[in-house]
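dude i think i finally got it to work??
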Amino acid sequence: MTGSNTPRANSMTGKRVRRWPLRPLSVVILLVLAAVTAASCLITRNVVAAQERLILREQTAEVAAVVGSAFAGAQSSLQLLGQIAGSGHPHPNLFAAGARAVTTASTQGWLVTTKSGTSLKVTAAAGNGPVVGQVLSGAQSTLARRALSVNGLASGLVRDGGTLRLVFALGGAAGPGTVVWQESAISPTTPTPTGPTSPWHSLNVAIYLANHPDPSALVVTTTKDLPLAGGIQYPFRVGADTWLIVASSPGSLVGSLGQAMPWLVLGFGAVTAVLLTAVLETLGRRRDYASALVEERTASLRSAIAERETAQASLSRQEHMAAIGQLAATVGHELRNPLAVVMNVLYLMKVGSKAAEDDPIHRHVATAEREISAATRIVSDLLDFAAGRGPILAPVEVSDLVTEALSVVPPPDDVQVVQRGEPLVIDADRDQIRQALLNLITNGYDAMPGGGVLTVSTTAAPGSVQITVTDTGTGMDEKTRGSIFTPFFTKKTQGIGLGLAVTKRVIEANGGTIAVQSTLGEGTSFTLTLPVLAAMVSAPQ
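look at this
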C-alpha cells in the first residue's frame, strides 16, 4: 500500500518526489518510545544495582555479626582465664589447663601480666610466647596501657621478627593492674579459604583492625585482589576498638534474572517501539495515500471545472466581441461618414464665414469640431477593439516611432515632453505599437490637467526593449489600477474605456507585456516590454 502511492502522487506533479524512510510524526514517536525505553532500562538497572548493594550490605552485616560473636567468645575466654589467674595463688597447671581448653588452631599463647611500677611483668603463661617473669615492652606495653585505661578489651597487631600476631588484651580481668592476653599468629596477605558454611562464602572480604582500609592493619582476607573496588565498608566494634569489614561480591547477588532484567526491559521496549512505530507509519501512509488520492481527484475535478469556466468565459467573450463587432461595424457604417460630412461642412463654414474673429459663430464652430472629433475617436476605439487583427511583424526603430507618436498628438501648452533613450530596434507591428503609444501619451496628457512633465524613455533589457511613458499627474489608487485594462472601464468624462484594453491586447499580441506603477497624487508610469531584434540594433550615433 505504501509503495503504490508514490507513482500516483508523482503523477500529480510530474516530478520525482523523494520520500523519507519515516514520516516526521513517526520519527517523533520512535524517539519518544526509545527515550522511554532507555529511561526504563536505566531505572531498572539502578534498582537492580541498589538491590545488589542492599543485599551486599546485609550479608556484610551478617559477616560482621559472626566476626563480632567470635571476638566476644575470645573476650569470654580471657575473662575466664583472668578469674583463674586472680583466685589467690593458682597452680600453674590449672592456668595451663584452662588455656588449653580455650585454645584454637591459630592461638600461640595466653598470658597474664601485672603492673609493677612502670613495667609489666608476666605472672602466668601458657603456650608459645613470653614466660613468667618476663617484662613486656614496646607495642605490647602500649597495648597493655590502653587495655588498663579502658578497663576492657583492646586489640592490636604486634610484629615479632617475621611473625605477625593478633593480640587481644583484657584489662583488669585478673584484678587491678592486670591484663590477660591472647596471641594468635596471622598471615593477612594469604587468602583464607571459604567453604559453603563460611559466613562469607559468597563474598570477597577484607577485615582491617582500623576504621579505614589500611593495608598495614589488614587482619584477614579471602582474596588477593586488594583493595576491593566498589565494595561495602562496614565498621563494627571489637571491645574498645573500631574494626572495618570491606566486602564485595564476585558474582551477582540478585540472581541471573535480576542481572538480566535491565537488558530484558531494553529489548522489550525496543521491539515495542519498532512495532508501534511500524503500525503508526503504515496507518499514516495509508491515510496519506487516501488523502493524496482524494486530492488528485479533487484537483482533476477543479481542473475540469476551471476548463469549463474558461471555455464558458471564452465563449461569452467571443459572443461579446461578436456583438461589439457588429455594433462597431454598424456605428462605423452609420456614423463615420455622417461625421466626416459634418466636419467638412464645418470647415467650409469656417473658411467661408465673413464674420469677425471674435464673433461667437467662430467659437461655436470650434466647439462643434471638438465634439465631433471626440465622437470620431470613440468610433475609432470601437473599431480597433472589435477588429482584433493579428500583428504583422517587421523591424521597427523605437526612437523614430516614439518621435512620430509625439508629433501626432502634440502636448497641451502647460505640459512639457521629454524624450530620451537608445536607438533600438524591435520586431513588432509598427501600426499597432504606434496606436498603443498614442493611447498612453494621450492618457498621460489627460492625467495632467494642471500641467506637468511627460517622459518617454527607451532602455535595453536582456532580450527585450522597454518603452516607459511616465506622467506627473493625479495618479491612481490600487482599486483603479487593478481595473484599468478592463474593457469599458473609465473614470473620464469622455471616452468609453477601451484605450488601455486595446493597448494591452496589442502589446501581448506582439509578444510583449505591459506593466503599470502609480501613486495617487504623484503620477503614473506605464512600461512596455517588447522583444528586441538583436540583428537589427542600430549603431550608436
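Residues 255-352 form the longest helix (98 residues).
im so relieved honestly
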